[in-house]
Amino acid sequence: MNLRRTLAITVRLLAQFRHDHRTLAILFVTPLIVFGLFALLFRTDATEPRVGVVSEGGIGEAISESLGDSDRIELVELGAASEADALLREGELDAYLLLPAAPSDGVLPIEIVLEGTDQQVRGIVPAALQESVAGGMRAGGPPGVPELEVEVRSLFGDEDLDTLDLFGGPFIGLIVFFLVYVVTSVSFLRERSQGTLERLMASPLRRAEVVVGYMLGFLVVAVVQAVEVLAFGLLVLDLYNVGSVLLVFAIEALLALAAVNLGIFLSTFARTEFQAVQFIPLVIVPQILLSGLIVPVESEPEWLQVVSNALPLTYAVEALREVMLRGADLATTSVQVDLAVLVGFCIVVILAAAMTLRREVA
Amino acid sequence: MTPMAIEANGVRKRFGDVAALDGVHLAVPAGSVYALLGPNGAGKTTLIRALVGLVRTDGGELHVLGQRMPQREVLGRIGYMTQAAALYPDLTAEENARFFARVHGGGDVEWALRFVDLWERRRSVTATLSGGMRTRLSLACTLVHRPSLLLLDEPTVGVDPQLRAQLWDGLREMAADGVTILVSSHVMDEAERADRLGLIRGGRLLAEGTVPELLARAGVDRLEDAFLALTEADR
After folding, report:
1. Most B CBs within 10 Å: which of A201, A203, A205, A207, as the mutation test of the B interface?
2. Does B89 touch chain A (CB under 8 A)?
3. CA–CA separation, A198 and B84 (whole Å)
4. Which end of chain A is more exposed for a tag (fewer CB within 10 A), N or C?
5. Which residues of A touch B88 (CB under 8 A)?
6. Chain B contacts in chain A segment 343-362 (CB below 8 A)
7. For residue A91, which of A112, A73, A115 has the smallest C-alpha distance?
8. Which of residues 206-225 of A touch B (CB under 8 A)?
9. Between chains, do B75 and A202 touch, taking CB under 8 Å as contact?
10. What is the C-alpha to C-alpha distance for residues B120 and A221, in angstroms, rounded to an integer?
11. Quick check: A333 contacting B, CB < 8 Å?
């Protein structure tokens, strides 16, 4: 091994970086952004679920008071189960507990009713209850610790919902968005690098015709992909879905269209395929972290929520959860808003792409 | 008087400190073959790009086929061949030609592929064609919509001498049918086939005329010597 020749490679590589500021920026700025986002999301205090309590006095009251001291949940004392149920349906509560006054036959039956679509709440509420019961019964209960009989119900979904059921639907959206974006932006860039774009621009084609032609072509591919992934999720993986499959598909297709348009738009800023690929971590990673897929948007710091609310995936994730887990349909306001935002995003981005695509090569 | 297919009046274009076009005056009569001759970096490509609106000029006037450029409608009557063969590598030769025909509103794919002697290879995927074949296919894609003006940026690079002669015969035939052809080249023997020549260097048209005219003006026998003498005189 000849050191001079080896170092020639090394030095040349570093010299290339010196001329490629964009790559340097990606290498050194992206990790800070991504890692910073991780910290913001996972080091902020965990969300405190709003939990309603309906106690019938006695031990129940003691547990309730003890729960009130817990810093894991935000307690709301309520008078009746019907009231709690209504608040849960309206989304004002994440869960509620029904606490009896005294054990019967040495067993204390406690009912937990969850909203059902938030994985975190599913873990926090039973854990907070366990902690408080120990304290509560020491304070106000009769001697002899009764056995607990906890029954957990879910308003939406059933108790068997697993992590895949909760994340699967939005994840389909993410897969479709990611792949469609990558393929679109690279293909569009190839049009530039192989010189055919120059040819098209010297033809009577309008810029909008180029962009919309691209959009339609990729939409065909993206729609087929969306159908495939959705069928795999529902039929093979048996994802939980109580909503309309057609509506789920429509959301996926709209998201794919957003990805196509975004791919075309951003590739008008890149000069080479390599540069287009470099946009990927900046476009995709923040969306994965901030779309509400992993951490609910509401639990982000407020300024970060503003960013989340500007990302198309956020709306698709919300809509997919609403439809698949809660059975929402087109009459549901939040679904209407989500769809409208996605449509708006598609239109704005494609218009922007048509305007930024330059006829001139120089 | 013959109408002009191309008229450039004092066209200027700067890239940073470099004047790519430094007040170019050019007149190409309709139905003629005109060769732009000059070394690399002389401004040939920039001028051709300016003619199709790919380069926004800083000053001067450009008229193509009687229209002030840039003008999108005129582009349908122009065939522009880029310097490197700009094709879709994963399409067949025929698919490439058909696509460029459609983009220009229709054309004659078979005629164009036969013109460049690629009709037998029409089903070959472009990526599998040799460099010379790709150049020919690129030319076919330029001709396919039967334009009335051809702008060819170094069209015969990598094409063997025999086929080059054949292509030139074809281009002369097209010119005889009234098609105007502007060819850029840095190869002298190729330039000699043109009706008129323009010597371009440093973004300026140094001399212009028929081959005998240029030879007479420089007082030499060979075009290469004329080019050297005329550029030398300009220094």
Report:
1. A203
2. yes
3. 11
4. N
5. 194, 196
6. 359-362
7. A115
8. 206
9. yes
10. 32
11. no
Q: DSSP secondary structure string, B30-94?
A: TT-EEEEE--TTSSHHHHHHHHTTSS--SEEEEEETTEESS-GGGGGGEEEE-SS----TTSBHH
Q: Give the range of the structural domain holding residue A117, as residue numbers without chain letter.
A: 50-154
Query: Nearest-CA neighbor of A47 among A73, A75, A77?
Result: A73
Per-residue model confidence (pLDDT) at position B92: 96
Same domain, residue pair A195 and A325: yes
Domain CATH code at residue A62: 3.40.190
Residues of A within 8 A of B126 (CB-CB) are: none
Q: Which of A14-28, A195-209, B21-35, B39-53 has the lowest mean pLDDT?
A: A14-28
- One domain for residues A147 and A236: no
Does the distance separating the beta carbons of B73 and A199 come in below 8 Å?
A: no
Map residue B28 onto helix, strand or coil: strand
Sheet with B149-153, edge to edge strand ranges:
B78-81, B149-153, B180-185, B33-37, B196-201, B204-209
Of the candidates B102, B100, B139, the one whose C-alpha atom is nearest the C-alpha of residue B117 is B139
The answer to whether residue B155 sits within a structural domain is yes
CA distance B142 to chain A (A): 9
Q: State the complex-level ipTM.
A: 0.90
Q: Picking from A26-35, A230-239, A342-351, B139-148, which range would have the lowest pLDDT averaged per residue?
A: A26-35
Is B142 part of a structural domain of the chain?
A: no
Measure in Å the smallest separation between the Cα of B83 and chain A Cα atoms.
Answer: 9
A235 within a domain of the structure (yes/no) = yes
- Cα B160 from chain centroid? 18
All residues of chain B having their beta carbon less than 8 Å from the beta carbon of residue A360 are 53-56
Residue pair A166/A119 in contact by the 8 Å Cβ criterion? yes
B76 in contact with chain A, both atoms CB, cutoff 8 A: yes
Q: Is the pLDDT of residue A144 over 60?
A: no
Instruction: Specify whether A217 is located in the same domain as A332.
Output: yes
Residues of B in contact with A194 (CB under 8 A): 86-89
Residue A192: pLDDT band with limits 50, 70, 90: confident
